[in-house]
């Protein structure tokens, strides 16, 4: 038994994203969404995006995904059996407004989510809803270019407003943009984060790429900040019970060595990757060093200052109620070092850390980094925090008895939960923990099914074969105990 206590009402649960698990990509009037034109890949073969639309004969993992669209009752029942208090999922805007700017919404889309949320409530599960999880109606990308076009702000706010009204009383925890800080990064951030597409078919790059335009990216991010701030105000006006959070890809970054230059480089990376977005969301204004970020990225500083000035009041009035983030790994940063290998990882890699081991997909494993990140962020903002993604992507294989014994996943999570407990003891206000990919789903970075995170196995492979049946892994019963004992029993 642990020597720390999780607060009463702690939100234990799991997390998913519509484009990675829902399927039904064109069902009942849904429009195409950007992920619907991103093909499958592997850890060595990047995913390919086909900006003009769906290419005949190509395999797109989002189209069926794990077909939650037709399995939602069964899946929620399994989550309830595990004792989830909270279930994170996202709404696809293209299910509600198929083209993003339609005069009227699609009733079938509204009803689908309503039924899902009702069932969650009946089972005692609070939905935590992401309004935009790497999803953007493709028609909006084609017509408006993406989030750098300010015309998109009002269209998205109209969608958010509709969700708050339609789901009032069923949903009270909301997130605006998933991993909004991914747009700090070139290729992937443009496509997944901002709906900005490359000029022609090609791999989804991580980081720099030829067609990347930092001006568009930083303006696109600014427009998302404004949209988020407007949504927060509307959510509160519609229902004062609503709690709206931001969602940041947590990038815990240590100095590579104690050399002062390395410390400064790591501090800069922490600022850029976490607090550039965090500050606007939580404090309602850009950090003092934001203009230096724009200048270094070749972005027009005067123009950005004008935008910040013009929207200052909106940003200040729409600060979030809590800070949520994903945490998978830590990285190191410092002066170039030929002896340091680049580390893999979620969104932002970095330099390696010789003290850590890594997952099958090369993501460093660092539970203590989670505590460090929690305490660092809480010191800065002093608002409730929530971990809305954390987990282990692994190549699960059946044991001799035909079952999935994922003890490595149990170890990974239990080690992270211990550090959460310690952070709480240190005074961090932590609201909840939704483990990523509670049911196997499509990997965002590689498009694989083989990279599995779930407590629940789904019978489907990288090429789309399988009967989609669900099966409990060993971690299922373990997490049930964690939920039941409010994090006290991790054995
Ligand atoms: C985060 C995303 C999720 C999820 C997760 C795991 O960046 O918010 O959508 O996919 O990472 O990453 P992956 O699927 O690449 O293993």
Description of the structure:
This protein has 491 residues and is an alpha/beta fold. It has a single domain, classed as Alpha-Beta Barrel (TIM Barrel), CATH 3.20.20. Helix content is 38%, strand content 14%. The protein has 15 helices and 16 strands. It has helices spanning 18-21, 68-82, 93-96, 107-122, 138-144, 151-166, 187-194, 214-238, 260-283, 290-296, 301-310, 312-317, 367-381, 407-425, 474-484, and strands at residues 11-15, 48-49, 86-90, 126-132, 173-177, 202-203, 243-249, 252-255, 322-326, 330-333, 342-343, 350-351, 385-389, 430-436, 456-458, 470-472. The strands form five sheets. The chain has an eight-stranded parallel β-barrel with strand order 1-3-4-5-7-9-13-14, surrounded by five helices. A hairpin with a 6-residue loop joins strand 11 and strand 12 (350-351). Helix 2 (68-82) runs parallel beside helix 4 and helix 6 (151-166) packs parallel to helix 8. The model has no long low-confidence stretch (mean pLDDT 96). 6-O-phosphono-beta-D-galactopyranose is lined by residues 17, 20, 178-179, 249, 326, 346-347, 389, 393, 436, 443-445, 451.
- Helical element count? 15
Number of strands: 16
CA(first)-CA(last) distance = 8 Å
- Point out poorly predicted stretches: none
CATH fold-level topology: TIM Barrel
CATH superfamily: Glycosidases
Helix fraction bin: 25-40%
The global form is globular
Q: Largest beta sheet: what is the strand line-up?
A: 1-3-4-5-7-9-13-14
| Derived structural class | alpha/beta
The distinct ligands, each listed once, are: 6-O-phosphono-beta-D-galactopyranose
* CATH secondary-structure class: Alpha Beta
What is the typical, i.e. mean, pLDDT?
Answer: 96
- What would you say the CATH architecture is? Alpha-Beta Barrel
Largest sheet: 8 strands, parallel, barrel
